[in-house]
User: Fold this.
Amino acid sequence: MEAQTTNIALYETARAVIPDLQKAAGKSSGSPSFFVTGGMLHKYPLPPLFSLSMTKTSQRNLVQCLHLTYGKDIHVGQVTVGGEVKPDKAHMSPDFIAERFWELYEQPRDKWAFEIEVPEK
Assistant:
């Protein structure tokens, strides 16, 4: 049930905001964006977290599909965090992660990337 609920919520959120982002894309030179936080479980599944691994894999797949469908007009992407976020860990702090989102947002339209990975060091 966890995978279904989480993915339906992401899907419904995208359905709700994508039309407005498309309108904004046609009216401005800005960067309408739809970004999601992901984890490394799609690459490195953990047997005790099998259900969560499946959920995160399908979330990433959904975001990739949105990127492939709308990526010309809307910057659809993901910041993939590979560890526990903690304020006292410089490379995994909330501020560091926020900077990666800003880095993704500031990319020029012709260089929009789908993903920035933040591996645990």
